[in-house]
Write a structure and sequence with these properties.
mainly alpha, about 100 residues, binds iron/sulfur cluster, globular, 3 helices, two-stranded antiparallel sheet, 2 strands
Length: about 100
Amino acid sequence: MTFPCVQCGLCCHEISKVPALAEYDRGDGVCRHLENKLCAVYKNRPLVCNVQAMYDFYFRAVMDGKTFIRENLMACMTLAENNPEIKSKIETFYRQEV
Ligand code: SF4
Ligand code: SF4
C-alpha cells in the first residue's frame, strides 16, 4: 500500500487534538519537527504519523487498504478545506481510489 501524500504538511500543523503527539506540539498546534513542510524525523516518526504502520498494526484487521487510504484522504481534504489548491490535488488522488 502506498499512501498518495501530497506533502502539504497540513496534518503536521494540526496536532493539538492528537494525544499521541502532545509532546511534539511546539505550543501552537504545529509539530516541532516540521521543517519547510517536511518531517525532520521522518525515518523515526511516531507510529501515528506513519500511515502504512498504522494500517499494519491497527486497521488491516478491520478494513482493506483501499478503504483505509480513502478514509485518510478524506481527513486530508478536511484539513485542506481552506486551501483549494491543496484540496484539489488531494481530491485527484481520492478520485483514483474510489
Ligand atoms: S494532510 Fe494528508 S496529504 Fe497533506 S501531508 Fe498530511 S498526510 Fe500528506
Ligand atoms: S513527527 Fe513528522 S510526520 Fe509527525 S507530525 Fe511531526 S513533522 Fe509531521
